[in-house]
Amino acid sequence: MARQRGSVCRLCRREGVKLFLKSTKCYTDKCPIERRNYPPGAHGKDRRPKLAGFGLQLREKQKVRRIYGILERQFRNYFDQAAEMKGVTGENLLQLLERRLDNVVHRMGLGGSRAQARQVVLHGHIQVNGRKVNIPAYLVKPGDVVEVREGHRDKKNVQEAREATAHQPAVPWLEVDRDNLRARVLLLPRREDIAIPIQEQLIVELYSK
Fold first, then answer.
1. Gyration radius of the chain over CA positions
2. 144-162 pLDDT, tens per residue?
3. Which among 3, 40, 61, 194 has the fewest CB atoms less than 10 Å away?
4. Four-way CATH pick for 100-187: 3.40.190.10, 3.30.420.40, 3.60.110.10, 3.10.290.10
5. Domain 9-97+196-207 belongs to what topology?
6. What pTM, to 2 d.p., does this model score?
């Protein structure tokens, strides 16, 4: 799978908003977007171009992809799946992204960023309903219990992530037990539960052309 090899802070500056890709650094005054809130590059400081139509739609899609760490083909597959589901396509898309196991681990506070949470999953530290799952794209469902496996709870990266995310607010669709590194999925995430500033309708318009 392709990875972002360069500075992820450049992605935030490109989109003009914090995408929270850098764990605790994003919550401090060391965050580059706090000091250089303009696009990266030699001419980024001159001016931020005004966008309309396709440009707005493209930037919104890129922003959501970068927030969740999804490649283009995989993101399009999620959109196609969301379009076939009942309900509002844009809300269905965000619900699918929120249900990803790496996002759930991040929401549990076991990863300061989704990239860190993805690493926790890939290293085999997580189990779902008592079975080891090391697939970040695994979709959880109501009633699932996600927890750190026995023998992995004292891992340095897991403990450091828990301490670093003590400030992180809980989401209403997860019942999180931080002491036991466990969470139960109470219900499917709703649009109002996703506080990230996203205009999902722009993405729907982009893919509907």
1. 18
2. 999 999 888 887 777 777 7
3. 3
4. 3.10.290.10
5. Ribosomal Protein S4 Delta 41; Chain A, domain 1 (1.10.1050)
6. 0.79
